[in-house]
């Protein structure tokens, strides 16, 4: 699996297809996060913006290989393992981007009303929740479940939006906790949301990986 992860990550970096979601995230942060604003609200915004970016990164990793190369890798390592490696590579890259964003947002935000370590931890947990939820959205809205580019993109955008606004969604719960905490200067740790996001991402990965056996 380590070799597959290296291969998928290298393929992503060499393709430069990561530039579009990275620039989109940079624009989100540049427009939505202002220096000196309350840290919890800023962290909530940065975590929420990472959800569609993660879904996009997953879509890129699951569709970046030419069919011939995908068949060769599947023959050598197994189609399910190759598919899972692509999914994990996207999640790892998005998680790294999220950590950098949390550190940067925390550094430029107002920390006077909250404990810095607690705010940082809460932001990292909310970011993890949004990465996992975004990964689930990406896995369920691209190949092998949806092959049409148009329908896949539409489903990704709609799924990302619903994941952020639907009551009961792990991402909505974690982001709302940060926004509410920003108003009351209360830091909450979204452990329940993280557990839900882990289950959701695992289920989506299982469905997506299993679908490769009968749709490809």
List keywords for this structure.
216 residues
Question: Could you give the topology of this structure?
Answer:
Blueprint: H1 2-15, H2 19-32, H3 39-63, H4 67-77, H5 79-108, H6 116-140, H7 149-165, H8 170-184, H9 191-215
Structure description:
This protein is mostly helical and 216 residues long. The protein has one domain (2-215). The chain contains nine helices and no strands. It has helices spanning 2-15, 19-32, 39-63, 67-77, 79-108, 116-140, 149-165, 170-184, 191-215. The chain is elongated, with a radius of gyration of 17 Å.
SSE series: HHHHHHHHH
Strand-residue fraction?
under 5%
Which stretches are poorly predicted, pLDDT < 50 over at least 5 residues? none
The major pleated sheet works out as: none
Instruction: Tell me the number of helical segments per DSSP (H or I, 4 or more residues long).
Output: 9
Distance between the termini: 21 Å
Summed up:
With 216 residues, this protein is mainly alpha-helical.
């Amino acid at each position: 699996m380590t070799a597959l992860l290296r291969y998928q990550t290298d393929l992503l970096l060499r393709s430069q297809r990561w530039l579009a979601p990275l620039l989109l995230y940079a624009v989100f942060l540049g427009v939505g996060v202002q220096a000196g604003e309350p840290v919890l609200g800023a962290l909530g915004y940065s975590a929420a913006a990472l959800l569609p970016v993660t879904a996009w990164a997953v879509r890129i990793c699951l569709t970046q290989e030419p069919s011939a190369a995908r068949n060769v890798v599947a023959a050598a390592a197994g189609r399910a393992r190759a598919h899972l490696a692509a999914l994990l590579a996207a999640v790892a890259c998005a998680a790294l981007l999220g950590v950098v964003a949390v550190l940067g947002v925390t550094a430029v935000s107002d920390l006077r009303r909250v404990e810095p370590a607690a705010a940082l931890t809460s932001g990292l947990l909310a970011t993890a929740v949004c990465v996992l939820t975004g990964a689930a959205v990406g896995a369920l809205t691209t190949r092998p479940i949806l092959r049409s580019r148009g329908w896949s993109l539409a489903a990704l955008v709609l799924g990302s939006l619903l994941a952020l606004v639907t009551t009961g969604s792990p991402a909505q719960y974690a982001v709302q906790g940060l926004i509410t905490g920003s108003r009351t200067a209360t830091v909450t740790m979204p452990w329940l949301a993280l557990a839900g996001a882990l289950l959701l991402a695992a289920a989506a990965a299982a469905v997506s990986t299993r679908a490769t056996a009968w749709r490809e």
